[in-house]
């Protein structure tokens, strides 16, 4: 019966193996038996134990639903919980990717100029889409940029992201921790300006791109002061008019008393880089945020001549204030539970229709197949540390896919179907891009190729944000353009 198909949709996924753990829960690789596609299923447990974590999860689930774009990681489904009123865990199905940009940079010291250009183009294209929706990511770094062997990148981890509304009080909007220090804009290091702009993300992308060029972090500060020292060592001491705009008295005093430093020519700092790339990088890393380009302006830079196409660089409508009304009032656990449940229903259209019409039944337990999932996840968590392959319950038939994640096992019908132009650019940039095998070795090729290490399982356990950098994905079809 179709009615029960909707509720029992968890049966369509066959769990393969654990690919990562964190304080929030566990991520497993799985096969979607309807499509043959590999996916990552993230179990987030006890989400209402701390209301701040629950709000962060709600915020990120909303943003990933609203920001549908080829360069942003996609939530495919969220499993329907067995009970609307009593659920504690949620299971989120993401597209599966192979690695992240941090691992790609770490594994390759020979990225070509084509790789570098294509990487930056995709990151800026994602930023343009986010920023036109008035969304600031606020925690961009290589680990939060997912990567595939075909050079496809996707931004993830929106746990610290915020939507900027014109009437949002700055003191509320920017009070929490923002951005990993190494990729943090100077105005975040010292609370320089009264209201921050999307330029904070532009700075982070500049730092990431510099790391792509050199293979190492550009500003690995050990403290906020050390961070400012490293930034001014390269960019020089900011001019007095910039310093006078610094809001934080201590930071302003520190900059005023700093010895005068001349800027280091970028051609000296990055001697092997494309001169056009350095011209754009210098714009991205302007000390004063008003001197940085927007993502749209950066995409129009001569560096991207022959690659950029405006019709593929989509904008997004600003997000409605009503979507984040919960941020503006005091909420309790049951409020957040109801809002998360409402987000889950976005992936179950018939049930959402019933919910909106007030005809949804609430007095029974849904046959959602979550019980089976819970058993499989628990089994893998308990046995994952043992040697040898671990097969979860109900997956002992030889005909089922092996419990090992290799990109080469993805069925042909699950491969991305990019537009011919982008496909051509990808092929040019990744003609020698390769994925290491389970032992860490890669097949021999005629030239030293870039590699995407497989099976990355590291998690930021102190960051309960929803879309972990380990959730890895297939590049989707580009929007019709």
Description:
The protein is α+β, with helices and mostly antiparallel strands and 481 residues long. It has one domain (1-179, 322-481): Phosphorylase Kinase, domain 1 (2-Layer Sandwich), CATH 3.30.200. The protein has helices at 2-7, 51-66, 101-107, 113-132, 170-173, 186-189, 199-214, 224-235, 240-243, 249-257, 266-269, 275-284, 295-299, 333-345, 349-357, 370-383, 420-429, and strands at residues 13-22, 25-32, 38-44, 75-78, 90-95, 99-100, 135-136, 145-147, 153-155, 162-163, 434-435, 451-452. The chain has a five-stranded antiparallel beta sheet with strand order 1-2-3-5-4, with helices on both faces. Strands 6-8-9 form a three-stranded antiparallel beta sheet. The protein has a two-stranded antiparallel ribbon with strand order 7-10. Strand 8 and strand 9 (153-155) form a beta hairpin.
Sum this structure up briefly:
The chain has 481 residues and is an alpha+beta fold. The chain is built from 17 helices and twelve strands. It has a single domain, classed as 2-Layer Sandwich (Phosphorylase Kinase, domain 1).
Which properties best describe this structure?
single chain; 481 residues; alpha+beta; Phosphorylase Kinase, domain 1; 5-stranded antiparallel β-sheet; 3-stranded antiparallel β-sheet; 17 helices; 34% helix; disordered N terminus
Q: Which shape, going by the Cα principal axes?
A: globular
Would you list the SSEs in sequence order as H and E?
Answer: HEEEHEEEHHEEEEHHHHHHHHHHHHHEE
* Regions with little confidence, pLDDT below 50 for 5+ residues: 1-7, 169-177, 393-424, 426-449, 454-481
The amount of helix comes to 25-40%
Radius of gyration: 23 Å
Distance between the termini: 38 Å
| Coarse structural class | alpha+beta
Strand order of the largest sheet: 1-2-3-5-4
Overall structural domain count: 1
CATH superfamily: Phosphorylase Kinase, domain 1
> Which whole number gives the mean pLDDT?
77
Main sheet attributes: strand count, strand direction, barrel closure: 5 strands, antiparallel
Looking at the overall shape, the CATH architecture is 2-Layer Sandwich
Q: How many E strands?
A: 12
Provide a count of the helices. 17
The CATH topology = Phosphorylase Kinase, domain 1
Quick one: CATH class? Alpha Beta
Strand content: 5-15%
């Amino acid at each position: 019966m179709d009615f029960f198909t909707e509720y029992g949709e968890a049966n369509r996924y066959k769990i393969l193996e654990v690919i990562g753990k964190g304080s929030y829960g566990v991520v497993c690789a799985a096969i979607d038996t309807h499509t043959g596609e590999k996916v990552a299923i993230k179990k987030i447990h006890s989400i209402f134990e701390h209301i701040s974590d629950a709000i962060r999860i709600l915020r990120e689930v909303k943003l990933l639903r609203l920001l549908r774009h080829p360069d942003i990681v996609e939530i495919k489904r969220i499993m329907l919980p067995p009970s609307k009123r009593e659920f504690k865990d949620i299971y989120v199905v993401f597209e599966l990717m192979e690695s992240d940009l941090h691992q790609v940079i770490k594994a390759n010291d020979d990225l070509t100029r084509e790789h570098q250009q294509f990487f930056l183009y995709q990151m800026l294209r994602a930023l343009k889409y986010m920023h036109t929706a008035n969304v600031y990511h606020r925690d961009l770094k290589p680990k939060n940029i997912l990567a595939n062997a075909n050079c496809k990148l996707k931004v993830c981890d929106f746990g610290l992201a915020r939507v900027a509304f014109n009437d949002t009080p700055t003191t509320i909007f920017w009070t929490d921790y923002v951005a990993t220090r190494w990729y943090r804009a100077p105005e975040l290091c010292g609370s320089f300006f009264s209201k921050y702009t999307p330029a904070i993300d532009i700075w982070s992308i500049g730092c990431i791109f510099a790391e792509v060029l050199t293979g190492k972090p550009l500003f690995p500060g050990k403290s906020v002061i050390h961070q400012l020292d490293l930034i001014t060592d390269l960019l020089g001491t900011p001019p007095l008019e910039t310093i006078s705009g610094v809001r934080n008295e201590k930071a302003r005093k520190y900059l005023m008393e700093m010895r005068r430093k001349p800027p280091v020519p970028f051609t000296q700092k990055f001697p092997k880089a494309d001169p056009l790339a350095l011209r754009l990088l210098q714009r991205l890393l302007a000390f004063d945020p008003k001197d940085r380009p927007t993502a749209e302006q950066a995409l129009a830079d001569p560096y991207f001549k022959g690659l950029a196409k405006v019709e593929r660089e989509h904008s997004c409508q600003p997000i409605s204030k009503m979507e984040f009304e919960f941020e503006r009032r005091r909420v309790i656990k049951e409020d957040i539970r109801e809002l998360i449940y409402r987000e889950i229903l976005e992936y179950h259209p018939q049930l959402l229709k019933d919910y909106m019409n007030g005809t949804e039944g609430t007095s029974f337990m849904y046959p959602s197949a979550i019980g089976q999932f819970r058993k499989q996840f628990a089994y893998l968590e308990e046995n994952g540390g043992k040697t040898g392959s671990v097969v979860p319950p109900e997956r002992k038939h030889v005909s089922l896919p092996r419990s090992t994640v290799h990109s080469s096992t993805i069925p042909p019908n699950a491969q991305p179907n990019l537009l011919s132009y982008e496909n051509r650019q990808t092929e040019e940039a990744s003609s020698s891009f390769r994925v290491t095998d389970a032992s860490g070795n890669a097949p021999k090729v005629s030239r030293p190729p870039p590699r995407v290490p497989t099976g990355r399982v590291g998690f930021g356990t102190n960051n309960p944000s929803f879309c972990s950098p380990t959730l890895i994905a297939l590049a989707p079809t580009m929007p019709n353009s």
